[in-house]
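Please fill in the sequence for the structure shown.

STRUCTURE ENCODING:
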C-alpha cells in the first residue's frame, strides 16, 4: 500500500455515526472522504464535524475532510480503508459493498459499522469477502474508545490485524471478535444486563432511578477500573461462583424483548427524541443532560488514558 493510500479513508454515510467516525480519522491525520447522498444531511455535516473535532481538540482537522454525494466521486486510488455507515437495512448495505467490489483497490480493507448484521451476510456472494470485516463503533463514536473488529469465516485474519492496528493508531481500543455471531461482543454483554434490568423494573423489584444508581454507583464504577474478569480475579473467582449457585437460577432468561419496553415503544416513549422514555424530558433538560454525559465521558477517558500500557490492555 502506498503512503498516500495508507492515510486516505472513505466513510460511506454521513449520519450521526458516519460523521463521528470521519472525525476520528481526520483527527488522526487521515484525509477523509465522506459520501452522503441526502442533501439535508450533507448540509449539516460541516457543523457537526466542527463540533466533534472541537471536542477532540483538533479543529484544524476539518481541512482534511471531503464530502461527496456519490461513491464514484471518491479518488479511490488514494483510499486505504473504507467504513460503511449507511442505515441498518441489509439490502442497502449489500448494495454499497457490491459497488465497493468494483470501485475499491485490491487489498483495501472494507468494513461495516453495522450493529446487527454479520459481515458474512453483508458480503454474501462477493469476491471481496476476504478483506471485509465488521468495524463496530459505539455512540458517541468519537468519544467512546471501544471498537469491535469482527471477522467472518472468509475474512483474512491479516486484514483484521491491520484494521486493529489502524484503530490503535487513531487512539481507539480495538477488540477482536473471531466469529460474527449476533450482537458481536459488547452488545451481547449489554443486552444480557438490559434483559435483567428490564425484568427487575417490570416486576416492581426496583425503580428506574434505583436501577440506574445501582449500576453507576456500584459495579459500573468498578468496571471503569477493571473489566469483569479482572475484577473477579481481584475479588475472588470462588466467591463469584458460590454466589452464582443461588443467583443464576433466578435470573431472567426471556427470549423476547421485555413487554415493559415494547409497551413503551407502542406508546411512543422512545427516549429524548420523543421527550419521553424511561424518564420525561424537556428541551432544556435534554441539552443539560447531553452536555453532562459528554463531560463525564471525557473525564472517564482521562482515567482510561492514564492506564495506557496496563496489564488489561
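FILLED IN BY: designer on duty
SEQUENCE:
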Amino acid at each position: 500500500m502506498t503512503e498516500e493510500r495508507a492515510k486516505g479513508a472513505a466513510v460511506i454515510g454521513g449520519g450521526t455515526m458516519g460523521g463521528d467516525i470521519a472525525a476520528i480519522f481526520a483527527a488522526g491525520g487521515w484525509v477523509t472522504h465522506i459520501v452522503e447522498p441526502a442533501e439535508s444531511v450533507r448540509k449539516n455535516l460541516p457543523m457537526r464535524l466542527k463540533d466533534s473535532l472541537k471536542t477532540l481538540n483538533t479543529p484544524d482537522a476539518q481541512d482534511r475532510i471531503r464530502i461527496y454525494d456519490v461513491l464514484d466521486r471518491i479518488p479511490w486510488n488514494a483510499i486505504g480503508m473504507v467504513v460503511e455507515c449507511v442505515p441498518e437495512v441489509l439490502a442497502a448495505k449489500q448494495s454499497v459493498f457490491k459497488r465497493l467490489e468494483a470501485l475499491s483497490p485490491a487489498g483495501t480493507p472494507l468494513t461495516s459499522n453495522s450493529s446487527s448484521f454479520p459481515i458474512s451476510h453483508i458480503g454474501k456472494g462477493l469476491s471481496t469477502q476476504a478483506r471485509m470485516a465488521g468495524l463496530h463503533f459505539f455512540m458517541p463514536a468519537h468519544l467512546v474508545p471501544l471498537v469491535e473488529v469482527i471477522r467472518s469465516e472468509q475474512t483474512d485474519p491479516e486484514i483484521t490485524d491491520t484494521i486493529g492496528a489502524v484503530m490503535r493508531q487513531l487512539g481507539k481500543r480495538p477488540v477482536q471478535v473471531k466469529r460474527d455471531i449476533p450482537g458481536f461482543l459488547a452488545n451481547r454483554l449489554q443486552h444480557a444486563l438490559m434483559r435483567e434490568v428490564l425484568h427487575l423494573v417490570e416486576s416492581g423489584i426496583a425503580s428506574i432511578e434505583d436501577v440506574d444508581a445501582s449500576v453507576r454507583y456500584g459495579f459500573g464504577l468498578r468496571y471503569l477500573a477493571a473489566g469483569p474478569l479482572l475484577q473477579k480475579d481481584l475479588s475472588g473467582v470462588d466467591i463469584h461462583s458460590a454466589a452464582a449457585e443461588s443467583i443464576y437460577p433466578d435470573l431472567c432468561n426471556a427470549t423476547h424483548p421485555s413487554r415493559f419496553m415494547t409497551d413503551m415503544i407502542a406508546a411512543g416513549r422512545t427516549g429524548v427524541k420523543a421527550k419521553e422514555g424511561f424518564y420525561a424530558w424537556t428541551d432544556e433538560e435534554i441539552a443539560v443532560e447531553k452536555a453532562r454525559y459528554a463531560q463525564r465521558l471525557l473525564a472517564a477517558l482521562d482515567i482510561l488514558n492514564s492506564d495506557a500500557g496496563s496489564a488489561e490492555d
